[in-house]
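Recall the central idea of this unit: under ordinary conditions, the amino acid sequence of a chain determines the structure it adopts. In this exercise we apply that idea directly, starting from the sequence alone.
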Amino acid sequence: VKSKRDSVGADKAIIVSNKGFTSTASTKARAYNIDIFSLAEALRNDWSHAFAHFQGFFIHSYGSALTVFIVDDGLRILNLHESVGKKVSEKQGAAYVGLNADGSEKLTLGQLVKPLFDEQKIKELIDSDTEKRHQIRVEFNVPDAESLFFLNETGEVTPLKKYIVVGQVWRQVTVCKPKVTQYKNEETGEIVAEIVGSDQPNFGFELIAEYPKRQDCERRVFLRKKKTG
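Accordingly, the structure predicted from this sequence is:
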């Protein structure tokens, strides 16, 4: 367990045994800073004390300040229709720029930029210095099979064959502190479930620990998307 904790970089390791632990195992667990519980202790333990060792969530994501230019084969910039420019100003990456042949919406600006972060060279560049904003310029050719179009400045649906992404990319590390909520049986005071979320209002996930009613049942721990509303 110590080796696994160290190899994955975990902040805390806990072992539960339905038969308890020998004195040798208890001594070694203390030396390795591993918490040990019998099954009965684990089931009645207030796990918020265990989660106190949980320092929080570290979210690694890519940040960017990018501009997309639609160009022809000679790399001359092709202007979008003013209505598209207005949508981009209002919705940013959520604005639809790529169209189907009939003019219906197909790809947003964000979806056009997404292949950039799949490029191994870009990932290596960002990871080489996570404190720096890296200048990039990448050309993308749209395969004929994609059949991608855009609305040009005169309002015509025009084939989109090539575009260039220019700007800055970097990696963001956000630290979210844990926030523990417990749900208890009103009659017995026993913990029914515990939710570990974050103090950040926009943090979208929760770690759930469900407490079984019988000792012969397994405790379920899982990650879920946070419910809203």
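The first helix runs from residue 2 to 8.
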